[in-house]
Write a structure and sequence with these properties.
- The complex is a heterodimer of chains A (265) and B (275).
- In chain A, α2 (50-57) packs across α11 and α7 (162-169) runs antiparallel to α8.
- Chain A starts with 8 loop residues before the first helix and ends with a helix.
- Chain A is globular and about 70 Å long.
- Chain A has 265 residues and is mainly α.
- Chain A has helices spanning 9-32, 50-57, 59-92, 98-106, 113-127, 132-158, 162-169, 174-185, 187-203, 219-229, 234-256, 259-263.
- Chain B is built from 14 helices and no strands.
- Chain B has helices at residues 2-35, 41-50, 52-84, 88-103, 106-111, 113-117, 122-129, 143-166, 171-179, 184-195, 197-213, 216-222, 229-239, 243-274.
- In chain B, α4 (88-103) runs antiparallel to α8 (143-166).
- The chains are: A mainly alpha (265), B mainly alpha (275).
- The interface between A and B is large, with 92 and 90 residues.
């Protein structure tokens, strides 16, 4: 008869409201993307794939999708290439300036991305004349470094440095030890870091907003531009296609590393 | 010998990369703002911080962040508490549903509100059907639309931070409280709530700073009618091409974020050191 056994209906209702609020609009948008009408209609009043046809026929969407994918892959690789050795140094060595360096590697998180984007527009693109594609990759890599260092660092901290010392003691060089011992052990950390970095780059708006040039722009930016001059449901169709991609991505991420670990702090 | 130099070789590339592609552009931006303005530095910032137009913009940005954080606590706390009491399989499912939106593009999430708030949107249909409204009203490009979009975007961050604290609470503490005669309400207020302060704190900082610096949602759902600092930076940088002004707003925005993110952390550190 204690009330702790009674399911708390008030809690349940709040939770339902919360999820309706978070997921409801997205589900409604998916429904509206199939409308034959030329505005976002719920109920859709029929079933049509014409907005999907329109979306796939837009060259800007196809091109910017390829740009987004390329930039996401290359900036992820770049951030891991410099972030993993940095994480290794910070977890495996004690040296003067270690704490300061760790804070420095995390610092891109505390600067608003729109501020970083504007600074990179002025210097990377206008003053130093870096090619737009490279400016996008470098700019994205800047905000991915903290994830690369933190996630692989956490993975390194959980593994025992003794196995590396054993390898060294048995005569393996530092590179051989890294590639044959350390890397396989922290593989889950690397996978988690790349997953998080890829999705962060692919979805980025505030940096990509400033780092565009003739014919080079990312998909999220093109979607925003499209909504400025047209209210037709084309962007809902693009969004639904992206949503399907995200579901597949989330499923793979869940299988490989567990979604929970990605955003755990 | 090798152990002494290795850390510097390993951190060198990341250090140089961030110095060249992040710190240098930022420093040069701020430096340019302090030296190149025709009206003078002090005058530029004085104008910004005394002009009612800009003050209103700054206040609106901070107010949005505050309101979004409070709404996120109001809905996030019960939801996180609810999830933490579910049996394993159900709580994993609910956590998945909480995490998934964080992977969805913010353009997609904010755009989805057009279906609800637009002139032909669901909200209008509903209000007219209920007789609460006569003709369709535009709910997009209002403060309410921006706040709704931001809450949808950042509420999952609050739920996840609170969940990680609540799920690590020792249930024995609550049982002890109940066993000693405290009611469910009193147990929650005197045991569960105080123990979940760390999660509440982390979640609030995350949601607050994310809301203050968000660009996509205010741009899509507020447009030119409801401008915040982030959309102002973009406006002055890319539309009116007034770079000194864009920089000044960017600097103020950065300073505010530092104030609201680092100050509470410093205070908390100070307090825990006292304990």
């Amino acid at each position: 008869l204690s009330d702790s056994k009674r399911p708390n209906t008030w809690l349940l209702l709040t939770a339902i409201l919360t999820f309706l609020f978070i997921l409801g609009p997205i589900l409604l948008m998916v429904v509206a993307s199939f409308t034959p009408k030329d505005f976002l209609a719920v109920p859709p009043g029929g079933f049509s794939l014409k907005w999907y046809g329109n979306a796939l026929n837009q060259k800007v969407f196809r091109d910017s999708f390829v740009t987004s994918l390329t930039v996401a892959v290359l900036s992820t690789l770049l951030s891991l290439l410099i972030g993993v050795p940095a994480a290794l140094a910070i977890t495996r060595f004690r040296f003067p300036g270690r704490d300061g360096l760790l804070n420095f590697f995390m610092s891109p998180i505390i600067v608003p991305e729109i501020v970083v984007g504007f600074a990179l527009l002025q210097y990377l693109m206008v003053a130093w004349r870096v090619d737009v594609y490279w400016a996008l990759i470098v700019g994205h890599a800047v905000i991915l470094v903290p994830y690369a260092v933190r996630v692989t660092g956490a993975s390194l901290a959980q593994t025992d440095a003794a196995i590396e010392e054993a390898a060294r003691g048995l005569g393996a060089g530092p590179l051989k030890t890294f590639f044959q011992i350390t890397l396989p052990v922290i593989r889950p950390g690397i996978v988690a870091a790349s997953t998080l970095a890829f999705i962060t780059s692919f979805n980025n708006v505030p940096l990509s907003l400033f780092l565009t040039g003739p014919g080079v722009s990312t998909l999220p930016i093109q979607m925003m531009i499209y909504t400025e001059y047209s209210f037709d449901p084309t962007v809902a169709a693009v969004s639904t296609l992206l949503l399907i991609m995200t579901v597949l991505f989330a499923y793979t991420a869940e299988r490989m590393v567990g979604l929970k670990t990605l955003f755990a702090r | 010998m090798e152990r002494r130099t290795a850390p510097y070789w390993l951190t060198g590339p990341a250090l140089l990369f961030l110095a060249a592609a992040f710190v240098l552009p930022l420093i040069l931006t701020v430096y340019a703002s302090l030296s190149q303005t025709e009206v003078g530095v002090v005058e530029q910032y004085r104008q910004l911080l005394t002009d009612p137009f800009y003050l209103q913009m700054i206040w609106r940005t901070v107010r949005f962040a505050l309101v979004v954080t409070l709404i996120s606590i109001a809905f996030g706390f019960p939801t996180a508490f609810f999830i933490s009491r579910l049996p394993g399989r159900w709580s994993s499912l609910m956590l998945g549903l909480t995490t998934f939106p964080l992977l969805v593009n913010s353009v997609v999430r904010s755009y989805s509100w057009m279906v609800v708030l637009g002139r032909n949107g669901l909200l209008n249909d509903l209000l007219i059907a209920l007789g609460l409204s006569q003709k369709p009203t535009m709910y997009l490009y209002t403060e309410g639309a921006v706040i709704a979009g931001l809450v949808q975007l950042f509420l999952p961050l609050m739920i996840l931070s609170l969940y990680s604290t609540l799920s690590h609470l020792n249930p024995a503490l609550e049982e002890a409280s109940r066993g000693l005669g405290a009611g469910a309400r009193e147990t929650f207020r005197k045991v569960t709530l105080p123990l979940s302060i760390p999660g509440l704190f982390v979640g609030s900082i995350l949601v607050f700073s994310a809301s203050m610096t968000a660009y996509t949602t205010p741009a899509l759902l507020g447009g030119s009618k409801v401008r915040v600092l982030a959309t102002m930076v973009q406006y002055y940088a890319s539309v009116s091409m007034n770079w000194p002004m864009a920089t000044a707003i960017a600097v103020i925005m950065f300073a505010l974020t530092l104030l609201f993110v680092l100050l509470p952390q410093a205070l908390l550190k100070h307090r825990t050191q006292d304990l």
